Amino acid sequence: MVDWTVALNTATKLVKPGPEISRDGAAAVVAELRSFAARAEAYVREVTGMEADSGTAPVLVVDRPRWIQANLDGFRQILGPLNAKMIERMKQSNPTVAAIGPRITGVEVGALLSYLSSKVLGQFDPFYPGADSTAPGGRLLLVAPNIVSIERELDVEPADFRLWVCLHEETHRVQFAAVPWLRGYLNGQIAQIVDSAELDPAIVAQMLRDALRRVIEAVTQNQEVSIIDLVQTPAQRQIVDRVTAVMSLLEGHADVVMDGVGPEVIPTVETIRAKFTVRRQGQGFDKIIRKLLGLDAKMRQYRDGATFCRAVMAEVGMSGLNKVWTSPETLPTAAEITNPRLWLTRMHPELTTGSS
Fold first, then answer.
1. pLDDT in tens, 52-63
2. Average pLDDT of the chain?
3. Rounded to whole angstroms, how far apart are CA atoms 303 and 251?
């Protein structure tokens, strides 16, 4: 399905160089980001009340090529079973496509990662294996050139911006370290998507034709569209809805935490948030690509996640919100993310009882 070597070579060739910076300057940025990541952990614990072992997931400050390599490693692991099934099916039906198809897909994956590699400031990779079978796994990646590039673009205080970014990403590390079942739950959901992937060439071709038609209709009518959503089966959409709800919660929770640290810790936090929110909207060709990839829709879902967290906290505080981390059954559904009252009624019935 994917030639990972072709994907890596394509992404490496297409990746944009980072901002100009001296060797000493780059070393200083790396050292500061590592320091801020460690410092951020204490703030995250204080704001959320979540406890996590500091040694469960390493913090890596990386450049764009290393971020690409890390994500390709993750894709290879997650898509391994599907890749094997697809190759075997293609060999039986069309050996020529089996030989050429993975290379074409590799170029597409590489081009996508090269585009994203200049956008991502940080990422927690929950699928990175632990040191042994009992370790929870995961690793935190901070993309130094992107952080420097954006802080310059926004014209914000570098130290404040770097700590602000670390707060968001460190929140993700704490989420997975403090909630040991979360990694397995997401792995299970992704495995279901892979297992339910449609391999029949005729059905796949029809899905692609329908997707193309809907893309054209959406673009001509100035409607929102995501190619990723269009090529999902109905069964997969249900799973994706569950995953999206969890990701909305994780991102929204991290946004609440990073903004919950006041100016006494990050003096220019309000300025940073205001400028960063404007930047998230995108411009020109970049905005078109973001729409087609569904990134704008995901940003809106993450804002919904932050709204959910704030609405719940307004009713039951942070301790009440932390009930989401009890088990998979206490996670909010997609409907509850957009209507927090539904989750509050389900998980905090005492609120309804008290008002009756």
1. 765 668 889 999
2. 81
3. 8
Query: Residue type at 324?
Result: V
Collect all residues with Cβ–Cβ distance below 8 Å to 212 and sequence separation of at least 6.
none
Q: How far apart are alpha carbons 179 and 166 in whole angstroms?
A: 20
Query: Given 3.50.50.60, 1.10.3080.10, 3.30.70.660, 1.20.150.30, which CATH number is that of 4-198+233-355?
Result: 1.20.150.30
Report how far residue 83's alpha carbon sits from residue 77's, in angstroms, rounded to the nearest whole number.
10
For the chain, the domains span 4-198+233-355
From CA 299, how far away is CA 287, in angstroms rounded? 12
61 forms beta bridges with 142
pLDDT band at 225 (very low <50, low <70, confident <90, very high): very low
Under 8 Å CB-to-CB from 304, ≥6 apart: which residues?
Answer: 248, 252, 337, 338
At 342 the pLDDT is 96
At 193, phi and psi to the nearest 5? Answer: -65, -45
Burial of 31 (0-12, 13-18, 19+ CB in 10 A): exposed
Confidence class for position 205, pLDDT limits 50, 70, 90: very low
